[in-house]
Amino acid sequence: MNVPFRALLLSCLLYPLATAAQAQDGQGHAGLSHHPPQDQRLHEKFYSTWRMPDHPSVSCCNDADCYPTEIKYIGGNIYAKRREDGKYISIPPEKVERNRDNPDGRNHLCAPPPNNLSSSDTVFCFALGGAT
């Protein structure tokens, strides 16, 4: 297994533990990792079955890493807004989902929060709003 893949896998495995500890301490991102109640079940199903476009055997992680987001185009490239700090991060073309539609027509980003085990601008998966 190569080093970047191991780091990604490790962050996917450790992140839920870190967020659970933050929630117990009252330090979690209140309201940031939750979707509107009417969308919760839909997103849980979508995220739990979503695989990385460039590594189909690897999950995009979980509901804690994935969320609807805003985008902008700069020079023909897609940038998605990271919820934790509002920074627009570049979406690598190989991370864009092209084989399934997203559940609600919005843009969705799966990425670790900044200062995690992965580099701060890592993208696991991205789904463009509307038909993909």
Describe the protein in words:
With 132 residues, the protein is α+β, with helices and mostly antiparallel strands. It contains two helices and eight strands; from the N terminus they run ααββββββββ. The strands form three sheets. The chain has a three-stranded antiparallel sheet, with no helix packed on it. The protein is globular, with a radius of gyration of 14 Å. It starts with a helix and ends in a 5-residue tail after the last strand.
Number of strands: 8
How much helix, percentage-wise, in residues?
25-40%
Q: Give the N-terminus to C-terminus distance in angstroms.
A: 31 Å
Strand content: 15-25%
Oligomeric state of the chains? single chain
**Cα radius of gyration in angstroms:** 14 Å
Enumerate how many helices there are, as a single number.
2
Largest sheet: number of strands, sense, barrel closure: 3 strands, antiparallel
Low-confidence stretches: 12-33
H/E series: HHEEEEEEEE
Overall mean pLDDT: 75
Shape from CA axes?
globular
Strand order of the largest sheet: 3-7-8
Helix/strand/pairing class, anyone? alpha+beta
